[in-house]
Structure formats: C-alpha cells, structure tokens
Amino acid sequence: MALIVQKYGGTSVGNSSRIKNVASRVAQARKRGDQIVVVVSAMSGVTDNLIKLAKEIMPLPSEREMDVLLATGEQTTIALTAMALHAIDVPAVSLTGAQAGIVTDGVHTKAKIANISPKEVHKLLDAGNVVIVAGFQGQTSDGHITTLGRGGSDLTAIALAAALRADLCQIYTDVDGVYTADPRIVPAARKLSEISYDEMLELAGLGAKVMQSRSVEFAKKFGVTFEVRSSLNDNPGTIVKEETANMESVVIRGVSLDKNQAKVTLALVPDQPGIAARIFKAIGDSAINVDMIVQTASHGTSGATDISFTLDKADLLKARKVLDGIRADAGFKEVIAEENIGKLSIVGVGMRSHTGVAARLFEALATAGVNISMISTSEIKISVVIDLDKGEAAMKAVHAVFLG
Amino acid sequence: MALIVQKYGGTSVGNSSRIKNVASRVAQARKRGDQIVVVVSAMSGVTDNLIKLAKEIMPLPSEREMDVLLATGEQTTIALTAMALHAIDVPAVSLTGAQAGIVTDGVHTKAKIANISPKEVHKLLDAGNVVIVAGFQGQTSDGHITTLGRGGSDLTAIALAAALRADLCQIYTDVDGVYTADPRIVPAARKLSEISYDEMLELAGLGAKVMQSRSVEFAKKFGVTFEVRSSLNDNPGTIVKEETANMESVVIRGVSLDKNQAKVTLALVPDQPGIAARIFKAIGDSAINVDMIVQTASHGTSGATDISFTLDKADLLKARKVLDGIRADAGFKEVIAEENIGKLSIVGVGMRSHTGVAARLFEALATAGVNISMISTSEIKISVVIDLDKGEAAMKAVHAVFLG
Known about the structure:
By secondary structure, chain A is of the alpha/beta class. Chain A is built from eleven helices and 20 strands. Chain A has helices spanning 16-31, 46-57, 63-87, 119-126, 152-163, 197-204, 213-222, 275-285, 316-330, 357-367, 391-403, and strands at 3-8, 35-40, 92-95, 102-104, 113-116, 130-134, 137-140, 145-147, 168-173, 194-196, 226-230, 238-241, 254-258, 261-270, 290-295, 304-312, 334-338, 341-347, 372-378, 381-387. An eight-stranded mixed β-sheet of chain A has the order 3-6-2-1-9-11-12-10, sandwiched between helices. Chain A has a four-stranded mixed β-sheet with strand order 5-4-7-8. In chain A, strand 15 and strand 16 (304-312) form a beta hairpin. Chain A is globular. The two termini of chain A are 40 Å apart. The mean pLDDT of chain A is 93. At the A-B interface, helix 1, helix 2 and helix 3 of A face helix 1, helix 2 and helix 3 of B.
C-alpha cells in the first residue's frame, strides 16, 4: 500500500462537474489500494473575485485580512471535493491548512512553511479516508491564518508529501507535463519523461511556467520526487527528481524563450572599484530584479566600460528613473534601453560532461541568421539575448540541433 | 469604558457599501471610548449560493462538509469588515468562530455552544482593536468546524456577550425593533421600548420572526440584556431583558397572528386511557410539530370524544397519512382538516396580575364578529384559532382594545 499525494489546481476544480471528475480520478487511484491525500486550489476565478471584493473596500487591504479572505477559496473547494467523493461512496474528510497541521511563519500573503504536524492526516488516512487538504494556506503557531503566495498549493502538496513520507506526489495541471520546448512555438517539442530538480528550476526561472521555483526548491531540499501531469487525460507526466547518473547522457533537457525581458546598457561607466556595486544596489533597493549582467572590457585608454543587464519589461520605467537619479554620481554617460529582445536558454545537466555545447548553440544561431547580443552561462544553462523578432525561429533551430 | 457586542445580519453586510456603512457605525460607537466586538453573518445570498453549489455535487451532502463549506461565508465577511474599518483608520482584527474560542458540541449544521474561551478576544480588545467575529460558527474541542444552524449569528453575539460580560449587546437587523403587532397589518402598532425574555420567546414562537427562540432562551439563561435595532437608522430599538416589576403594569405586550397553521380534528375518539398517547406518539415519530391540542368532553353516552390540534400547514399531508394509518387501531371515526385558519395570540407578563384578560379578548373578538374555534392559554399568553379570512380584522380589533 502506497501513500500518494495528489494536487489539483484551480482549473481542475473550476466547477462542480470538474470537481466530480477529480473525485472519480481519486476514487480510481484509491481502488488500487493506496492511501490518498488530495490537495486542492481555489476554484479558478474565485480568488480573483475575492481580491476584487477586497479592493472595493480598500485599495491596499491589510495582508493579515487578505489571508483570512483568500483562505475561504480553498476551504470551499475542500468541502465540495469531499462531497463529490461521498457521492461515489468514497469516505473522505476535508481539512483546512490549519487543521492539516501546516504551520507557517507570520509573513502574511507569502508565508513560508515552518513545519507540518501530519498527525490528524495520518489518523484520518488510517481510518480509511481520503484526506482533502486546502492548498495555499496554513496558520502561524499562534493561530493566525496565512497564505503561501503564488504557487502555494504546489508547495502544500510537496511539503505534505515530505512530512507524510509519501511514496508519490502528483501535481495535476492543465498541461501534460514538462516539454523540451513550448509546443505552441516548437511543434517538434516532446514531453520529457523525467527531469532533475536543477533543470526544472532553471526552466521555471526561464519562462517555462509549469511551476514556481520555490516548490521545486522545496522538493529538492526534502528529496520529494513528484510528477507533473494532466487532470484531463491519463497520459503519464514528467517525473521531477534527484539527478541520476544517466541523466547526464542527455546533453540538453529543454529550450526556453523568455519574451518578457528588456535590456539596459549603461555606456561609458568609469572603470573603478565600487561603481557597479553602487549601481546595482540602487536598482536592488527599488525591488527591481536583474537577471543577466554583462560587463565588457575597458574601452582602450578611456578607463570606462559598458555594463548591460536584463530585467522584466514591467520594471523598465522604474529602472530608468533610478538610473537617471544616480547617473551623475556614478559617472556613466548614457542609459540605452532595448525592449525588443528575447532570452533564449538551453538547460541540461549533461552540459557538465559534454564539451562544446556553447559552440554548437552559437553555430545553430548563426546558421539561422540570429545575432547574439548577450551571453550568460551557468553550470547547467546557457542563455543568450537575441532579437525578439527572431526568437521563435531561433528556438526551432536550436531545438532541432539539440533535441530534434 | 463599556464593552459592547454588536451583531449585523446578512442584509446589513450584503455588499461592499453596506459593509462600509457597518464600519462607520462601529467607528462611531468606538469614538465614545467603548470596546467593540462585532459579530457578522454571511453576506446575504452567499449562504444560499454555497448550498446550491453543494447540491450540484450531491443532493444530501455530509453535514460535516456542509459546515466546512458554509463557514466560509462568515469568514469572508469578517475579513471585509476588518478592511472597511482599516479604511477609516480604526484598528480591527478578524477572528473565525474557532479563533474566537467558540467551542461547540459535534452536532454538525445545528451545533450547540459548549463554552467560549474569550482570551484572544480580550487580548485584542485590550490592545485597542475592534474585534470582528464570524457569527454562526465554532469548532468542536477536537478541531472540527461546526455551524450553529438558523439564527446562529444572533446566538454567537449573545453567547459572546455573556462570556465577555459585555455591558450591552446590540442585534442590528432590518427592522426597528419589536412591535406591538406587525405594522404591515396593524398600522397603529407601536415599537416597544422593552420586553421581557418570556414575552419575546412567546412572540418568537408565534410568527413574529424577529429572532429565533434559541437565542432568546440563551440570553435568558445567562441574563444577557440585548437590544434589537435597525442598522439603517439611528432610532433606539427594543431592549430585551429580565422581567422587571413595572413590566407587569402593562397587561399585554403584543398581538401576533400566525397564518401558517392548519387544524386537524379527530372525530369520535374512544374515551379510553392511552388512546391520545398512541395518536400523538405516531405524529411525533413522524417529526411533525403539534402546537395547540384541545379535547372536548365526552359525547353523552357514546364514550367517545373529539380531539383537535394545530400544526404547520406544510405538515398536513404527512399528518393525514400517519392518522389514516392508525385510525382503525386507535378507533377514531374521522379526520377533518381545516387549512383556512389563523392563530391569534396576545402575550404579556401583565396577565399574571391582571384578571379578566381572556374575557376582554373574547369580547373584542365577538364585537368584531369573529368566531373562536379553539382556545389555548399559558401563564403569559392566550391563543385562539379563528377564521383566516377574519384574521387581520381580528388583530386590529384586539390591538385597539389592549394596545390602542
């Protein structure tokens, strides 16, 4: 008898007939003799409606009260899901995050799970029940309701799987799994049968938005193997797990394209210690996330250099203001912004043991007539900034070379 | 500094602008320097929508899960009400029933309050907050969410007022208070400035549906004085409290008319011990509530008697079936049902010390040409069954005689 944690997102429980569909999937799994814990999100649209209601009352509502408000969304779903299981004669009991023993810190709207006491969950499982747990929520040790922020229900599922020492954790969503590339852009993209945590993390940070990084990080930290799969069919999904030796035999796991970045170049920055620090401190203090940073060599005898970095397009205006404010002080000459860029990345633990990967990438792009304006590498990732207009063609070309 | 518990019903918090209105009333009360606890219901319509959603899943959902589901209604309101107070710079913290320390028995959907540990409420009040508590809900001692059934939010308010030793408990509703008669029927009806628990209880049981009996009973048991008043204006309401000596100087507190009853007569019931018991046991076993019961003297030498009783019109069909089933066994001759009746009642603790009240009632009805077909009395109430068509005229006549 295995213990399985299944998580169903907002679309999968979006209305009463979808909730019934979830119930019948759960019932099927239970028929195999396994113990099942089901984690559910709020029905799609519900959270947005609650936020709208709150904004009618006050533009910037208290975060503690937002958590009290939003936690009702998942609480509604757990009750309905339990009922749907009862309707097909499966014993089931619902638990709020607090009731399931999920204790968090007190950072409302983006709380971190501090610990889980799964006593009640075990007790109910041992009594023969399917246990339905509200995702996305917990409570502080002194009893305040908290929520875990974006992707919180995935986190609940993975943390519960860790605390319960579950044999399997399944993240049901509206896609079939993790692909070698976005199939809407690259028709030849294939679903991956497995991927390592680190690869998944790189992909999550690169616009392949199957899951939030924090859930994957949590799974990695606690060694929780999980499967991303669809709630709409019975296809096997993608297993996300600790890196294994044979994973390195595959050079590249996937290709991603982030169209949401902009590039800023600071021209003629004085080549002195402390200048770059001052610039990026000012940027960081404004809560702007910088991704790639590239500094070129000094311009001959001028004693000045160029620094380029990428950031979210949405932050560009704010960044310009910050940079204009410190230009005189930092002594750079000009701020040049480019919005028409895309960041193409290849990810794979196989890079560690395969040489010449970067060269093959550059060659593929050159053959496709794509110019590279920035390069950044990590141990298992190479990212390049290219013309946005050539992004999709570049992606297809790179996919064909490495994954075709 | 006084401690005041204010309860606002579903209509009073029916949308965001009404919630803002509640917040400004609360702020006003707080300006006087008092500590305020606010008990709120679900926004009107919300509970019905949740029930509808549950029925889509299953016709007869589990009562435990119904409680988990319905409790979200009040939880939504407490968060929004706290936000509305924040918006006008009043510090406020919301608490679910469980967080407010409301412990109930485990009878889901109609739980009884077992005890209240108001430590958290006191702590938050002492820190200068308005405390917003979700009405209608609590939790069992082992942590299951429960709801208190119809009128549950009133009960929460009164029980909290008792546990907190509040100086005042105000039940805000959409009527101005308790009237001498329904003003829609008797234009001369007056709002009462005060009424005793017992009178309120008799009226609650007689179709004057301002509050459920159980809340009044709870208030009586724990000596909680409360005021029923409108959330839409600043008129003083009706104080409901322990009977005082001077209350008896008023003969009659109010007149009510229950149009929702039917009358059943069993003709020629054998006048033997145990027959009536057998009949009403069969009725009671079918969960039919019988109100007035009248037995006439034996018919001369026949050794038989007639028994009449009243019951809810909705139960009439069920009652007929039960009675047809036992007729042969119980030996009565015939079942005669009348639906076209009304039950007119006068209520007042003054009846105890004033004689001739019944006679004055019968005279008033006779003068108005109204025939009486059943009479039933208690210490502080006289009820008569009359023709439904003459009900409203009878009410006006009786009101004029006793309260005009």
